[in-house]
Structure formats: structure tokens, C-alpha cells
Specification:
The protein is of the alpha+beta class and about 260 residues long. It is built from 14 helices and 5 strands. The structure holds a DNA duplex (13 and 12 nucleotides).
Length: about 260
DNA sequence: TGCCAGGCTTCAC
DNA sequence: GTGAAGCATGGC
């Protein structure tokens, strides 16, 4: 058990932020995260966070996963300094959000599944793909999943997208190592060569799987915010390399308001 | 019980 | 290039 004092971090907000689909609340104050073929229990009280792992594992795996090297306090301050009423409220509300550095393969598959879908069902589908274990299916494994198996996991019409992608990665026509080396614009274009990956999914992959924090995924929620509070015009590029973080505060705040 | 969900592809025009 | 239809499935 490792106890750390972490500011600008709230595991409940992160778990409910819609960027990852394998963090579940176990009991009050305790969450279970599955990633990288590992399982991690996390509990939190104020800024005291308990990670159920060794210091070595934390430094090797989870420090980067939770983006611990980034100063979110400074980013929030610069957003608040803009004096934008909506963004200020969003930042204050989602004060403990972070952009996770997730596994690239899992992120692409997860966000293909996310299209025209709701978060509880996305989580359920991914859990079934994993056989409710810590193991997310590899490229080779997913390429071999039968259509019936994918359908029984609840992928619906997205089954073909996922299977084609897995087969393309396996046979080398879509190269994840190449993708990792591309800049933001190149990565978006390359991702969109795959069937089932459009602008929104590509931007989610860039943000959550490649950690291109200039990515600004525009989904129905963000569209609604822009239409309602910004008269249909919102230039995310002014935020440069933290546009994606701004997006996450907006998304989380707007969704929470609807509940 | 329908409506809708972190969109995308296809096909008119 | 823009716009609208169609899409599988289950949570609510």
C-alpha cells in the first residue's frame, strides 16, 4: 500500500469522466482500475490517495498513467485567468480531472465502440470483451474473435470496424508504432484511414491514447456547449497544448449538470 | 415503451 | 462540399 498526497486529483471524477471505461467503484471511497494487464485499487480521502501497489510499480506504471508530471494547478490557473464564466465554472467543478495516458490499442478499440453509444453500455461491452478479467484482448486475439462472439459482447454494427482494424494491425497495413511517432495532424489523418474512425474518435485516440493534449474532440456534448454558451463559435486552438484538458473540464461539467 | 447514446459511412444533390 | 438516412444494441 502506497499513500501519496496528490493535489488536482480526484479518482471519482476521473472514473466518471468518460475517457476510460475500466475504472469501477468497488465500495464507498474505493475504486478498481484495470489497465496494462494489471489491476490497481485506489482509495481517496481529500488529497490523501492510497494506491494498492508498491512504490516501484507506481513509479514504473501508474505515475505516467495518471499524468503525474503535469502541473494541472498551473493549467487551471491559466484557464481561470481568461475570465470565461463557463470555463471557470467547469474548471472549479472538475478540479480533480486528469488526462490519463492509456494504452493505445485499448483506446482505439474503446472509442470505436463509444460511437453512438452510452457510457454504461460501452463499459459493459468492454468488460465482456475482456471476459470480465484484467486482460484486454490483444490485436491477435481480437483479429480472431468470431462475428458471433463480437456480437455477443454487444458491439452491434461496430463489430466489423473493430475486426477490420485488428486484422489491419496484425497484417501490418495499419502500424501502431508508426502512429506513435506522428505529430497531431498526421496522427488524425492516419487514424481516419480506418473504417469506423472519424474526426471525433480520432481526436479521442489522439488525446487519451497518444497524449496529444492539443486534440479537442467535439462530440454532441461539446457541440451543445458551444451552441448554448458560445453562440456556435469556439476556437479551441487558442489553448494550444492544453485544448484537450479544457475539453475534458467542459465535457465533465456539462454532463454532470444534466444529471 | 420508446427514446437515445463521447458518430460514422454511404449516397443523393 | 453539404445534408440526410441508416445503423445494432441495451440503458434509462
Amino acid at each position: 500500500m502506497l499513500i501519496k498526497h496528490v493535489s488536482d486529483f480526484n479518482i471519482e471524477q476521473i472514473a466518471d469522466s468518460g475517457q476510460c471505461f475500466r475504472i469501477d467503484k468497488v465500495t464507498d471511497g474505493k475504486w478498481r482500475l484495470r489497465a496494462f494487464n494489471r489491476e490497481l485499487e485506489i482509495s481517496q480521502r481529500q488529497e490523501e490517495v492510497r494506491f494498492d501497489c508498491s512504490a516501484e510499480e507506481f513509479d514504473a506504471v501508474w505515475f505516467d498513467y495518471f499524468d503525474m508530471s503535469r502541473d494541472y494547478g498551473a493549467i487551471k490557473s491559466s484557464i481561470l485567468a481568461l475570465g470565461d464564466e463557463y470555463l471557470s465554472a467547469a474548471v472549479k467543478f472538475g478540479y480533480g480531472l486528469r488526462i490519463l495516458r492509456q494504452d493505445l490499442w485499448e483506446t482505439i478499440v474503446s472509442f470505436i465502440i463509444s460511437q453512438r453509444n452510452n457510457i454504461p453500455k460501452i463499459k459493459n461491452t468492454i468488460s465482456k470483451l475482456c471476459h470480465d478479467s484484467v486482460h484486454f484482448p490483444s490485436v491477435a486475439e481480437l483479429a480472431e474473435f468470431s462475428d458471433d462472439k463480437l456480437k455477443s459482447c454487444g458491439l452491434g454494427y461496430r463489430a466489423k470496424y473493430v475486426k477490420d482494424l485488428a486484422q489491419n494491425v496484425r497484417n501490418g497495413s495499419f502500424d501502431l508504432d508508426k502512429l506513435k511517432k506522428l505529430n497531431y495532424t498526421q496522427a488524425i489523418d492516419y487514424l481516419k484511414t480506418q473504417s469506423g474512425v472519424g474526426d471525433k474518435v480520432a481526436n479521442c485516440v489522439a488525446l487519451f491514447g497518444l497524449h496529444k493534449t492539443e486534440a479537442f474532440p467535439v462530440d454532441v456534448w461539446i457541440k451543445r456547449i458551444i451552441d448554448t454558451y458560445y453562440n456556435g463559435h469556439f476556437d479551441a486552438s487558442k489553448f494550444k497544448d492544453y485544448a484537450g484538458i479544457v475539453q475534458q473540464y467542459m465535457f465533465y461539467y456539462e454532463r454532470a449538470k444534466g444529471k
